[in-house]
Amino acid sequence: MQTDIDPRHLIGRKAYDRNGTRIGTIDEVYLDDATGVPEWAAIRTGLFSRDAFVPLEPSELIDGALHVPFERSLIKDAPDFGVGRHLSPEQELQLYHHYGLDVGSPPPLPDRDFGKLAGQEEHT
Fold first, then answer.
1. Residue 80 contacts by C-beta under 8 Å, 6 or more apart in sequence?
2. pTM
């Protein structure tokens, strides 16, 4: 999804599944803790229903509506963590697995700095 979209402008928009079937209305947008980029949307799936989390990365904003590339049934079966709370890394991982999305591992740290003591300068 376009990362330059203000997440506040997503709230209240309609969301559709891969077949064009309406899923519901976007209730909340969750940002990545490290980057601040919108990562998840919580979609209210019905009047007395719960919110379903959908990933924003493979989704598209088309004509003012969010189009999610998954089946409605898969979206409705997503793990329910409630809205208004922070998603933990474990919860995000469960959501990524639910949608069959690969989660890249963080890049390895360079090992050249390991072993240095804080406050010591390198002598050349």
1. 50, 51, 52
2. 0.75
Pairing assessment for the beta strands 14-16 and 22-31 based on DSSP bridges: antiparallel
CA 5 to chain centre: 14
67-122 pLDDT per residue, tens: 999 999 999 999 988 888 889 999 999 999 999 998 665 544 455 544 555 555 55
C-alpha distances out from residue 122 to 55, 90, 111, Å: 45, 39, 15
Strands 60-62 and 22-31: unpaired
Amino acid at 88: S
Are the CB atoms for 1 and 56 separated by under 8 Å? yes
Query: Residue 84 and residue 93: Cα distance in Å, rounded?
Result: 18
